[in-house]
Amino acid sequence: MISEHVVDLSRLQFAATAMYHFLFVPLTLGMVWLLVIMETVYVMTGKTVWKDMTRFWGKLFGINFALGVTTGITLEFQFGTNWAYYSHYVGDIFGAPLAIEGLMAFFLESTFIGLFFFGWDRLSRPQHLLVTTLMAVGTNLSALWILIANGWMQNPVGAEFSYQTMRMEMTDFWAVVFNPDAQAKFVHTVSAGYVTGAMFVLSISSWYLLKGRDVEFAKRSFRVASAFGLASVLSVIVLGDESGYTVGEAQQTKMAAIEAMWETEPAPASFNMIAGINEAEQKNDWAVEIPYVMGIIGTRSLSKEIPGIRDIKAKNRERIERGVQAVIALEALRKHRDDAAALEAFERHKADLGFGLLLKKYVADVRQATPDIIERAVNDTVPRVAPMFWSFRLMVGLGMLMLALFALSFWTTLRGACAHKPWLLKWALWMLPTPWIACELGWVVAEYGRQPWTIYGVLPTHLSVSTLSAESLYGSLAGFVGFYTVLLIVEVYLMVKFARQGPGSLGTGRYQFEPAHA
Questions:
Q1: Helix (H, G, I), strand (E, B) or coil at 328
Q2: Cα(263)–Cα(388) distance, integer angstroms
Q3: Alpha helices in 336-384 (DSSP H)
Q4: How far apart are CA 438 and CA 456, in angstroms?
Q5: Where are the alpha helices (DSSP H) in 119-265?
Q6: Which of 27, 124, 142, 435 is the most exposed place for a label (fewest CB within 10 A)?
Q7: What is the mean pLDDT of residues 372-392?
């Protein structure tokens, strides 16, 4: 058995690199559509201020895109280096959307990004707008295929385990593509990216207005960002509800942990706004509840119950006990593929194979699992509740703050008063980090909440890692963190440098007043 220390280090390294990478992704997803909007107005009106807006914000987009690609490439290599058994076990399914993403979406995206930057003097206005639009489509297609792969990890549909190859095999490609969990995760994630792009433009435009520079340029950028941001944050909230519903259907353990729901409540369940979580005694010492809300969000009904953690553990204990029979039968089939009795037993219990494999963390031979070991495996099936509970609520709280900001910003632009509200501009400037914090918290909820699984209900995390030494993991972890930190510093430095220069860096002068030709 691989030591738990190696498993934890492998998880920490992947988490660190993934969260660094996701500092770049949301801004890319959001800014590209803002560029489409700005260039569309330029093509429709011919006003050069809109062209300069597209070029200036496009320059900041390009810096972010380049660094995001760098971090994303190294992230994918870890599936082969740190998670070799995972890649072997589910590579036939998980690798398909990643391959499509690389062959279709990434090349499309990269090609049109080159045309976007170098085609201004070579393409007509409509042609360049088409390039910008296809660049946006490619960026979102890239996110789609990656999230299809991740959604399958959360809800492994369209595949089954083959005892002959000892691997998961795809049975229905379209079930993988149209996995409800993947689709909900995609629209929720890209909407969060749109909010990030809008907040970025809104905050920097607010800084210009506070400084009294490039006023007309900043007012237009502020107007576009506030409208796009308001629509996007509303989408995040609505689609977050859909994502919550799919979690309630596919991952009841995660839902119960998010809500600190220890006992199954009569339908419809109440929503705990805040609570004093006591994990040692598996209860909440106190809670502020909103009746009915959780039942409606989690089940879309007034009569369907959401199971509590205690009931979920009881069911998981039964699944582990049945899973033991599946593991024993599988081991017999590995020795004798024509063992009819073992095959019959395996077919009867194979749905619980993953739960039986949870015992491998503590004992090599599942037959030797004691009641105490089984209890430890049962407890492993539920992630720690407090991090899930508070991460989710902080994410939602930041979302509500951003909704208020975008709504007020949009209202002031309708009244033509955004440049005369310094309190609003300062608020927008200080809110700049919030979408990134909310996005990272969302990934904590999604990925930490899936534990102890890499593939939910199928493959435990402790069986997925490569056979590596702790020393090599410490070295690679330090290298990745150091390298990514340098990239992040470079990103911030370049962003600040060009943001301070403003549209004047394009060689067009300052937009202090309304240009006569605009």
A1: helix
A2: 17
A3: 340-349, 353-357, 371-380
A4: 24
A5: 125-154, 173-177, 180-211, 215-250, 252-258
A6: 124
A7: 93
pLDDT category of residue 34 using cuts at 50, 70 and 90: very high
Residue 372 scores a pLDDT above 90? yes
Q: Which helix (H) or strand (E) holds 296?
A: helix 293-299
3-class DSSP state of 168: strand
- With contact defined as beta carbons under 8 Å apart, do 332 and 365 qualify? no
Check if the beta carbon of residue 443 is closer than 8 Å to that of residue 193.
Answer: no
Alpha carbons 349 and 459: distance in angstroms, whole number: 15
Element of type H or E holding 70: helix 48-81
Give 443-478 as a 3 state SS string.
HHHHHHCCCCEEECCCEEHHHCCCCCCHHHHHHHHH
Which own/partner contact pairs does 514-517 have at CB distance under 8 Å and 24+ positions apart? 514/216, 515/48, 515/49, 515/216, 517/47, 517/48
Q: Estimate to the nearest angstrom the gap between the alpha carbon of 477 and the chain centroid.
A: 21
Q: Which two tokens stand for residue 424?
A: 């609003």
Backbone angles phi and psi of 238, in degrees to 5? -65, -45
**Residue 277's beta-bridge partner residues?**
284
Strand pairing partners for 283? Answer: 278
Is pLDDT above 80 for 102? no
pLDDT for position 133: 94
- The residues, any chain, with a CB within 8 Å of residue 108's CB and separated by 6 or more, are 134, 137, 138, 141
Q: At residue 118, what are phi and psi to the nearest 5 degrees? A: -110, 5
* Residue 454 φ/ψ, nearest 5 degrees: -85, -45
Q: How many CB atoms lie within 10 A of CB 418?
A: 25
How far is it between the farthest Cα atoms of the chain? 86
Span 113-128, pLDDT tens digits: 889 999 998 999 999 9
